[in-house]
Amino acid sequence: MDGKILSGDICRSTCGRDKDGVFLVISVTGDRALIADGNVRKVRSLKKKNLKHLEILIPQADVTLSERIGKGIPTSDKSLRRRIAELSQKK
Predict the structure, then answer these.
(1) Domains in the chain, please, with CATH?
(2) What angle do helix axes 77-90 and 63-70 make, rounded to 10 degrees?
(3) How many CA atoms lie within 13 Å of 79's alpha carbon, on the beta-carbon side?
(4) For residues 38 and 80, is the Cβ–Cβ distance under 8 A?
(5) Nearest Cα to Cα of residue 55 among 72, 40, 33
(6) This prediction's pTM
């Protein structure tokens, strides 16, 4: 793994108000990522986060879900929370 953050990665925030929170990366543009966790950061209000403030926990964990959210396909916050929990436990 080269440490490059991609959409579909499960990451941990290393600083800010959301420090130590676990998020799914929805998309990456330049030096920013759009992230959501389905709890504090809902699918309808994604958070922009600097890439240097994210640490990869599980690379390419759920590319399909991140693509669905990125395309605006309706996805519930509950399903996002459940998926992050499932993937985090497998780690």
Answers:
(1) 10-90 (2.30.30)
(2) 160
(3) 10
(4) yes
(5) 33
(6) 0.89
